[in-house]
Each structure stands twice: as C-alpha cells, then as structure tokens.
Amino acid sequence: MKNIQLLIISAAAFFASCSKYVDTPVPKTELASQLVFTDDKTSTAAVVGLYVDMNGFNYQFANSLMNYLSAMHADDLYYFSTFENYDVFRQVRLLPASNYVNAYWASVYSYIYHTNACIEGITAAQNLTPAVKRQLLGESYFMRAFFYFYLINIYGDVPLVISTDYRENSLKGREATAKVYAQVISDLSEAKEKLTDNYQTTNRVRPNKAAATALLARAYLYNKEWARAEAEAAEVLTNSRYSLLQDLNTVFLANSREAIWQLQPVNIAGGRNTWEGFTVVPFSNTSTVVFRLDTTNLIAKFETGDARLENWTSNRVLSTGARIYWPMKYKVRTSTAAAPTEYSMVMRLAEQFLIRAEARIQQGKLDDGRSDLDSIRLRAKLPVLPANLDKAALLLAVEKERQLELFTEWGHRWFDLKRTQRSAAVLGPIKGANWQATDTLYPIPSDAIRTNINLTQNEGYK
C-alpha cells in the first residue's frame, strides 16, 4: 500500500505542471493513499499523472527511446558521432547490461504498476461519478494494454503483472507472448466498451474510444487476425473526427485532425515543444547534425516527387560534398510562442489506412487494399499503384509505404520487419557480421534477472 501511495502522490505532484490535461484543479500532494480515489478530481489526477510522467523528460520510453533508438535498431536512422549507448542499437550489439535496455523495461513496468493501482483504486471507489469512473477505468485499461503491447514486441515473453501485489509480482516468471496478447486484447476490448468518442479536454491528449479501437486494430494485425484488424481499422477510418491532412506540415501540430492520441509537452522550459523536435532539429543552420536518416536504406526509397521527403526531412550538403538528411516531422526545437504548437504524436490516422490495406490484401481483397495504399500515396503526391499487382507485390508495397510514412515513429519499422519475418532479409545485409536472428528482441535486463530468480534470458544473450 505504501508503494501505491508514493506512486500516486508523485503522479499527482507532477500533474500539477500540466493543468490542460484536465479542467479541474489538481489535488494536494499530501493525500493519504486511502483518500486518493475518494472523488472525481483526485482519481482523475491519478490517471492523468501517468501521461505527464511519460513525457516529462527526454530519452524516455515515450519520446526519444521508442522513436529514435528503435529506428537505429532498424534501418531508418543513425547517430553521426560515436556514443556507445546508441551504437549498440545501430550495430546490434545489445547486452543485458546496456543502459537503455533497462530504461525501457524499468520505466514501462513502473507505468504498468501505476495503471494497476488506478484500476484497483477506481474499481473500489464508492463516491465517483459513474461517467467519470467509466472514463478513468477505460483509460487505465487502454494504457495497460498499450504498455504490454510494447513490452512483448521489444522483449518477447514477459511477466504479466495485473495487480499491485509486490511480493507476488517480484517473482513472476515470463508468460508466453500469446497469453500477454490475449490480455492486451481483453484490456482494449474493456477500454473500448467504457470509453466514448469524445475527448475529455479540447486537446487530444487523453485516450478515447478511437484510440482503443486503433490499438485493437494493430494488435489484431500483429496476430494475423485479418478480418478483425480490417473491421477495427475501418471503424476508426469512418469516424468523422479524423482525416488525412493534405498539408504534411500540419500533421504533427497540436490537436491535428490526423491525431488519434498525442502527448502534450509538459517540460517546456526555454521554449521547447516536443522532446522529439528538441532532440533531432539542429540548433542552427551550421551546427552539426548528429541524428541522420539512412540515405541508402531509407532516403533512396522515396519516389521522385514524394511530398514526405520534402516535408518530413531536411538536408544539407557537407564540405565533403555528401548530402545528409535528418527527420523533420517535428520542426520546432525551441520557440518564442506562448504555448507549444507541436505535440508528441503517439497514434495517427495514416496507420489505420495501412493496417486496413494489409489486412484486406491478406484476405485476398486486392483492389480494396490497393485503394487504401493509394489514399496514402495520393496524400504524398504520388500516383496510384498499378492495377495488376498481385498479392506478394502489394504486400511489399505495404511494407514500403509503412516505412516511408512511419519512419522514426514508435518502432514501427523494426516491429514490421520482425512480425513479417523480413528482418533477416532486410537487416541482415545492413548490420553485417553482428547480425543474428535473435537480434529481433532485446535482452532481458541484467538488473531484472538479478532481482528475480524466475526470469530467464532471451536466446542470443545468455
């Protein structure tokens, strides 16, 4: 109980830095654990504090780690300077003791503990407004599913922790990925049933029913449940709240119509907007660009006239004559504007077109799947695909469009190659002698194994 108290108190205190997540005053931080869920305000602060915590500092799971380090593990991005903590990702030399390997694990499990505390506390609460109780439970179930989705795609089999019983949880062994996926789908179904289409504030920074539906579509896609993936994606795509923005420079702005779920910047000292932009946008027109896009394996794949290359990347010719590129989906490093104009994008509509396209093609609905791909291509100012492409060719087109549309976003490229069993064919030649099939998963952190005798290590890292 003491651990729950400290967790919720910390979240409530951090929440005070970002009142726009909720329209009611935040609670005082000296609340006792038995009072945390006694009314709508404190319960909301407990849930919303999680989003603030996720995005408060740089190089965390929810910003630079999932967006950029996973892109280095794939073939999107590299770090120009020598830095061992990054090089181990690019060169597939990860070890159980590698710094950021543990950062993913430790932070995500702390977030899961937070969501479990919220589910237990809100479920037991007697004095909450029914609508608020349903909303907060829906958000909590969604978030637990979200975190487990990433854990199993990063590490494979992981401990399935769905309570706050520390003594039990600290000795849990790894559960089969299929069982964890079943929990993810169950939690998302619960979230979808409890949430509404409405956002709780004027910002799209708290998950709604569409967010649960979109993640459910992704989970079904990863599990090869094509018809269900198609149906869930279609539900989002027919929702009038969302649309593909034709101006690519507006996609990553705060509350864009393409956004299904964003994280609001909370640590904006010095005019900072997102940590993503602050990390990769050069300080000046002459400063060194350290996060660079792979010219051979990414940039060269853009077709002539692709608006994504023009609008979502920037480039410069070095004194050596070489042209380098870097990500510019987020364009603001720092700004003098009164409030951030860009928010961190977590889920957006374009992915749902790509999910439905793949699910349809896998079911033999080639024309429908190609039409979804053409929606993405036309937005990128590209011609439609040839009508005579067969299933295999269309699936390769899906892979290409996913890479060019979702580069440096939330590990999509790395996960896509792994789930389609294309990692060896694509990444093997790029990574060279260091590559082995087991590199599609991270090692279980040495700190976790040292403190839990029932944890086992992934193959390739023993």
Q: Give me the number of helical elements.
A: 18
The outline comes out as globular
N-to-C SSE string, H for helix and E for strand: HHHEHHHHHHHEHEHEEEHHHHHH
Mean pLDDT over the full residue set: 92
Strand residue percentage: 5-15%
Biggest sheet, open or closed, and with what strands and sense?
2 strands, antiparallel
**Gyration radius, in Å:** 22 Å
Structural account:
This protein is mainly alpha-helical and 462 residues long. 49% of the residues lie in helices and 6% in strands. A two-stranded antiparallel ribbon has the order 1-3. Strand 4 and strand 5 form a beta hairpin. Helix 3 packs across helix 4, helix 13 packs antiparallel against helix 14 and helix 15 runs antiparallel to helix 16. The radius of gyration is 22 Å and the shape is globular.
How would the blueprint of this fold be written?
Elements lengths: L1 H14 L24 H15 L6 H13 L3 E3 L4 H7 L8 H26 L5 H26 L10 H4 L7 H18 L14 H14 L3 H12 L21 E5 L11 H6 L10 E3 L13 H6 E5 L5 E5 L16 E5 H14 L3 H14 L11 H16 L5 H8 L3 H9 L14 H6 L11
Antiparallel strand pairs: 1-3, 2-6, 4-5
Helix pairs in contact: 1-2, 2-5, 2-6, 3-4, 5-6, 6-8, 6-9, 8-9, 9-10, 9-13, 10-13, 13-14, 13-15, 14-15, 15-16, 16-17
